[in-house]
Amino acid sequence: MIREELQALSIAELIDLCLKLQAQVKHLQARVTELEQRLGPPKTARNSSVPPAKSDKPNPPLQKLHSRHQQVELPEIRPSVTEVRCYATTCPQCGTAQHSTYPAGLEPSHLFGPQLEALTTYLREQHHHAQARSQGHRRGDGTVPSAGVG
Questions:
Q1: pTM exceeds 0.70
Q2: Domain span holding position 10
Q3: CA-CA distance, 98 to 104, in Å (whole number)?
Q4: How far apart are the C-alpha atoms of 125 and 134, rounded to whole Å?
């Protein structure tokens, strides 16, 4: 409504309009409160990954970062060995020779499975780890020792 329309209303009509607007404001405030509760507390550097610069509370001056260190560790590696045997035979009736074939991915040319192949490639390419040295890290039983275990 514009000013002229409001001036044309009677006092009773203005009171009704104010009461209606008050009820609408109360309803909208309740809706905002409900939506804020759904969102949870505001995100800060203490309760989320929001950087401290975007947080509403700066870090206390006594909490200065002195140093930082991360260490990555793998769980102990236990190999899963899959042995495939191919057999050959001759049909006693017709004398035709028959032989089985290796399943895809388990041919004799594939010594390592895809995960071990990826690890050895990573060590060789990213860390310039010589293949002869990487083969020396495996135990006789095929397991790879953890740090400090030989």
A1: no
A2: 3-41
A3: 19
A4: 12
Buried b (16+ CB within 10 A) or exposed e, 8-38: eeeeeeeeeeeeeeeeeeeeeeeeeeeeeee
Q: What is the pLDDT along the chain (150 residues), one digit of tens a residue?
A: 788 888 899 999 999 999 999 999 999 999 999 998 888 877 777 777 767 665 555 556 677 777 888 888 888 888 889 999 999 999 999 999 999 999 998 888 888 888 888 988 888 888 876 655 555 555 555 555 554 444
**Number of domains within the chain:** 1
Residue 123 to residue 128: CA distance in whole angstroms? 7
Residue 12 inside a domain? The answer is yes
